[in-house]
Amino acid sequence: MKKKIAIEFGKKLAEKRKEKDILQKDLSKQCGFSLNYIGIVERGEKSISLEKVYVIAAILECSVHDLIPDEKAILLEVE
């Protein structure tokens, strides 16, 4: 389940970033995270800390909730 959450979070992050027309490299500079780290998170290869979610949400001018995957989709796959 942990991997599924990371994958779904990455998809939501990429979607929100693209909606705001921000490149990965620009997001990484604004957040102070490496470009490689942003790519890894968006691909769901690594989970992200809650503190970093808040930083990204502030940069993307969205709520943390906008980046969190839908729990029903996550739980349906587990069952």
Task: Provide the fold topology.
Elements: H1 2-19, H2 24-31, H3 35-42, H4 50-60, H5 71-78
Helix pairs in contact: 2-3
Molecular structure report:
The chain is mainly alpha-helical and 79 residues long. It has five helices and no strands. The chain has helices spanning 2-19, 24-31, 35-42, 50-60, 71-78. Helix 2 (24-31) packs across helix 3 (35-42). The longest helix has 18 residues, at 2-19. The chain starts with a helix and ends with a helix.
The low-confidence runs, each spanning 5 or more residues with pLDDT under 50, are none
Q: Approximately how much beta-strand content do the residues carry? A: under 5%
Could you say which structural class the secondary elements and strand pairing correspond to?
mainly alpha
Quote the distance from N terminus to C terminus: 10 Å
Query: What form results from the Cα inertia axes?
Result: globular
| Discrete helix count | 5
- Report the average pLDDT across residues: 91
Residues in helices, as a percent range = 55-70%
Record field, number of beta strands: 0
Largest sheet: none
Brief synopsis:
GO terms for molecular function: DNA binding. The protein is mostly helical and 79 residues long.
Describe the structure using short key phrases:
0% strand; mainly alpha; globular; 79 residues
